């Protein structure tokens, strides 16, 4: 599995590559978290004077960064990665997203296991246009809530209709 710095660098590429008007637009509070963790990881604790009241965006960024106080850079990197892991499924599949997922190692293997007492697990599909994933419940025998049985699902997958 990749080191924290490698995961952080891959996560930064994902966040920096999000198109401003794409299908996934992070909230301002989410982006402030990423900004604060990035600054803490790359520059350490906030070391600039607080912007004036009139500089609303600069003040919000300063408040977010300064709020991390003396958090160590490696912890800020790890938090940045953890925040991205929370939203990665909602993002379009891009080269940067793929690179990040590869750095995570067994992230998807761990959530693929069924907890005790559960007989269904989510399967994520993304169409070739890169649209947001659609979650379909599929039971362990291959049938789904959408009425597609395991054989039909296999035909769909082999025809390349879903990715």
Could you characterize what this model shows?
With 163 residues, the protein is mainly alpha-helical. The chain has two domains: 4-110, Acyl-CoA Binding Protein; 115-159, no CATH class. The protein contains seven helices and two strands. It has helices at 4-16, 28-43, 56-66, 73-87, 95-104, 107-112, 150-159, and strands at 120-125, 134-139. The protein has a two-stranded antiparallel sheet. Helix 1 (4-16) packs across helix 4 (73-87), helix 1 (4-16) packs antiparallel against helix 5 and helix 2 (28-43) packs across helix 3 (56-66).
Please specify the SSE layout and strand pairing.
Layout (H helix, E strand, L loop, with lengths): L3 H13 L11 H16 L12 H11 L6 H15 L7 H10 L2 H6 L7 E6 L8 E6 L10 H10 L4
Antiparallel strand pairs: 1-2
Helix pairs in contact: 1-4, 1-5, 2-3, 2-4
CATH architecture of the largest domain: Up-down Bundle
What is the distance, rounded to the nearest whole angstrom, between the alpha carbons of the first and last residues?
A: 25 Å
Coarse morphology: flat
Please tell me the total number of domains.
Answer: 2
Q: Count of helical segments?
A: 7
SS-based structural class? mainly alpha
What's the pLDDT, averaged over the residues? 74
Properties at a glance:
single chain; 163 residues; mainly alpha; Acyl-CoA Binding Protein; 2 strands; 50% helix; flat; fatty-acyl-CoA binding; FERM/acyl-CoA-bd_prot_sf; Acyl-CoA-binding_protein; ACB domain-containing protein; Acyl-CoA-binding_sf
């Amino acid at each position: 599995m990749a080191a924290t710095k490698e995961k952080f660098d891959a996560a930064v590429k994902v966040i920096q590559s999000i198109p401003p008007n794409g299908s996934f637009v992070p909230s301002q509070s989410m982006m402030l978290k990423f900004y604060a963790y990035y600054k803490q990881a790359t520059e350490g604790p906030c070391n600039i004077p607080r912007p004036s009241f009139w500089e609303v965006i600069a003040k919000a960024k300063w408040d977010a960064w300064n709020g991390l106080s003396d958090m160590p850079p490696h912890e800020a990197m790890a938090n940045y990665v953890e925040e991205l892991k929370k939203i990665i499924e909602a993002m379009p599949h891009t080269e940067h997203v793929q690179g990040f997922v590869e750095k995570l190692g067994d992230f998807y293997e761990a959530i693929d296991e069924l907890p005790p007492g559960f007989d269904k697990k989510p399967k994520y599909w993304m169409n070739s246009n890169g649209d947001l994933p659609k979650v379909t419940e599929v039971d362990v025998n291959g049938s789904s809530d959408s009425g597609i049985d395991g054989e039909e699902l296999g035909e769909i997958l082999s025809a390349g209709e879903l990715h």
